[in-house]
């Protein structure tokens, strides 16, 4: 079993220092992950006029194999947007997509990663392999990388790459990153005519099972939901709604390095 | 118990516990943990000698604005805010499945005025009677009540009830009238002198004392330099508070004759030995249970072996730290004239 770990403190430091053969006690799996089938299905068939761009189109599977799709309308894209350590879950998403490729009907996959600096980008090789793996089974897969300090890829935020990708109806988004990034991504999805999106949110957790009620975020309907139990993946409409932020923050802004 | 290991059973009022380890209120939810971890064994064989559910209040509470928890050096600062569905929903939905667990239950209530404790005790008593019968002797061996008096008195400038002996006395007396059987009063450490509070609770009819609840603390956001938690200040728990909690258990045990449930940073068998040596006959695991819900049961096993190694019984252990200690509060004597 392998883990992608960013050593930011004593706990992650110990995990990274652990050698082969050492025991690790794991509590899990916990919560609800990305519903990849739902995301793939959300890409099937455009919901409105689609610009003539051919980027991201994938020949469909057997006729009728994808509900709602036909030979005519262009397929939407599955767009992955992640920042910093938020890239980690998408290694599994990409591998899961590859395992679904045999059944046919997968959309094109566009993966957009943003990092603070080159240090965070160290694991890129694994993702490049996973994306190669998707191409090898006939899925159109692209990777865009950007870094805040310009040390890796272009300089800027991942939302810059997302803007260039020009989201359109028929696309679907999976995202994981800071609250600021997620909120900004959701705004882009709304602005693009209501592109469905799912976000893996983060909150400090004491118990991870729903005992302590410490990891709540405020949803768009005003209710509080435990990220460990209801989430960590929430649909964009549920988490952010018509605007505002599914904040685990108290409004005091970004909290890095905690 | 395995042959050769000492008997760990302890009485807490009419409750008979198979061993001294319980959970701190609000830190272990057996039903949530069993569901999330897919471990029905947690309900079949709960890893605690008695189960203490989280605080119930008269009215439903959403809890505090997030963020509600933050890690500190060897500790955890929380501002959860006692979210719960209120006592009516609790009696309807929670009480039946709690009473079906194969362990004694110590219900926990919090009030925002001394009067609310009496109302809560009365409501819970009616709920228990509806399920187990009107004769207290039928159920007082199975159900106890713990009063969380760290709550603010909203009628008295939101000063915590447990910081004032008179308010404490009033809250406990009100509950005592309504509740037969085990009545535990959970003390707050955020006081200048805990002994008068402990005495007030004892005089008002408490069967036992549990100490301590969390210590008030503050963490600032690293970037904004403003309070990190949604509730601004929070309660500190975890290994960082153990020496503080241990001292309070030591003092109360020396001053008041009631049985004590000791807690505060317990995560190893050494901690269990320490709290019991200071006079606790029951020890609660709180924050450490987040990492390992089975910890209380494991500590019980380790306690049995630790006692066997010394050839001690539980009775040898409880309060042994007090032997020969003449000045437990380390009171500075004024210079003789």
Structural descriptors:
heterodimer, A: two-stranded antiparallel sheet, 9 strands, 25% helix, disordered C terminus, B: 337 residues, alpha/beta, 4-stranded antiparallel sheet, 11 helices
Describe the structure.
The complex is a heterodimer of chains A (258) and B (337). Chain A has 258 residues and is an alpha/beta fold. Chain A has 7 helices and 9 strands; from the N terminus they run H-H-E-H-E-H-E-E-H-E-H-E-E-E-E-H. In chain A, helix 3 packs parallel to helix 4 and helix 5 (158-165) runs parallel beside helix 6 (179-191). The longest helix of chain A has 13 residues, at 124-136. The radius of gyration of chain A is 19 Å and the shape is globular. Mean pLDDT of chain A is 83; it is low at 46-73 and 249-258. With 337 residues, chain B is an alpha/beta fold. Chain B is built from 11 helices and 15 strands. Chain B has a 7-stranded parallel sheet. Chain B has a 4-stranded antiparallel sheet with strand order 4-5-13-12, with no helix packed on it. The relative contact order of chain B is 0.16. The mean pLDDT of chain B is 95. Classes of the chains: A alpha/beta (258), B alpha/beta (337). The interface between A and B is medium-sized, with 33 and 37 residues.
Number of DSSP E strands of chain A? 9
Biggest sheet strand line-up of chain B: 3-15-14-11-10-7-6
What summary fits the major beta sheet of chain B? 7 strands, parallel
Strand content of chain A: 15-25%
SS elements, strand count of chain B? 15
Proportion of helical residues of chain B = 25-40%
User: How much strand of chain B?
Assistant: 15-25%
Give average pLDDT of chain A, whole number: 83
Helix share, percent of chain A: 25-40%
Return the average pLDDT of chain B rounded to an integer: 95
Distance between the termini of chain B: 59 Å
Distance between the termini of chain A: 27 Å
Order of helices and strands of chain A: HHEHEHEEHEHEEEEH
């Amino acid at each position: 079993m392998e883990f992608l770990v960013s050593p930011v403190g004593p706990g992650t430091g110990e995990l990274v220092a652990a050698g082969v053969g050492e025991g690790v006690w794991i509590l899990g799996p916990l919560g609800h992950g990305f519903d990849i089938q739902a995301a793939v299905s959300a890409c099937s068939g455009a919901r409105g006029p689609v610009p003539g761009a051919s980027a991201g189109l994938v020949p469909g599977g057997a006729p009728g194999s994808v509900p709602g799709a036909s030979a005519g309308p262009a397929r939407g894209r599955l767009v992955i947007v992640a920042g910093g350590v938020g890239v980690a879950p998408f290694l599994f998403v990409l591998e899961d997509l590859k395992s679904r490729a045999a059944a046919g009907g997968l959309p094109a996959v566009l993966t957009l990663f943003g990092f603070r600096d080159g240090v965070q980008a160290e694991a890129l090789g694994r993702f490049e392999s996973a994306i190669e793996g998707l191409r090898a089974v006939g899925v159109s897969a692209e990777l865009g990388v950007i870094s805040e300090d310009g040390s890796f890829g272009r300089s800027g935020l991942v939302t810059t790459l997302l803007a260039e990708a020009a989201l359109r109806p028929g696309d679907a988004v999976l995202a994981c990153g800071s609250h600021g990034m997620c909120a900004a991504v959701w705004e882009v999805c709304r602005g693009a005519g209501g592109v469905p999106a799912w976000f893996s949110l983060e909150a400090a957790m004491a118990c991870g099972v729903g005992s302590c009620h410490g990891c709540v975020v405020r949803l768009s309907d005003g209710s509080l939901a435990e990220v460990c139990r209801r989430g960590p993946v929430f649909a964009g409409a549920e988490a952010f709604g018509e605007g505002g932020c599914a904040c685990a923050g108290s409004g005091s802004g970004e909290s890095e390095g905690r | 118990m395995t042959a050769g290991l000492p008997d760990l059973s302890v009485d807490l009022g009419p409750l008979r516990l198979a061993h001294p380890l319980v959970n701190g209120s609000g830190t272990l939810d057996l039903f949530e943990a069993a569901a999330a971890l897919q471990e029905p064994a947690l309900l079949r064989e709960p890893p605690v000698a008695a189960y203490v559910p989280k605080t119930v209040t008269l009215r439903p509470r959403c809890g505090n604005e997030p963020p509600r928890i933050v890690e500190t050096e060897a500790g955890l600062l929380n501002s959860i805010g006692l979210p719960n569905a209120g006592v009516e929903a609790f009696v309807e939905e929670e009480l039946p499945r709690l009473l079906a667990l194969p362990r004694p239950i110590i219900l926990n209530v919090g009030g925002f005025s001394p009067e609310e404790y009496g109302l809560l005790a009365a409501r819970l008593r009616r709920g228990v009677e509806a399920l187990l019968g009107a004769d207290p002797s039928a159920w007082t061996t199975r159900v106890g009540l713990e009063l969380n008096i760290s709550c603010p008195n909203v009628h008295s400038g939101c000063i915590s009830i447990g910081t004032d002996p008179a308010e404490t006395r009033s809250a406990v007396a009100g509950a005592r009238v309504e509740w037969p059987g085990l009545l535990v009063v959970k003390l707050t450490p955020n006081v200048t002198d805990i002994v008068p509070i402990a005495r007030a609770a004892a005089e008002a009819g408490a069967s036992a004392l549990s100490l301590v609840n969390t210590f008030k603390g503050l963490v600032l956001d690293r970037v904004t330099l403003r309070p990190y938690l949604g509730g601004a200040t929070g309660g500190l728990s975890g290994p960082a508070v153990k020496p503080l909690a241990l001292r309070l258990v030591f003092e109360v045990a020396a001053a008041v004759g009631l049985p004590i449930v000791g807690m505060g940073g317990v995560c190893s068998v050494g901690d269990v030995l320490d709290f019991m040596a200071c006079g606790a006959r029951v020890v609660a695991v709180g924050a450490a249970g987040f990492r390992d819900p089975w910890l209380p049961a494991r500590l019980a096993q380790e306690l049995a072996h630790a006692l066997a190694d010394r050839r001690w019984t539980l009775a040898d252990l409880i309060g042994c730290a007090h032997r020969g200690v003449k000045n437990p509060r380390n009171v500075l004597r004024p210079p003789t004239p």
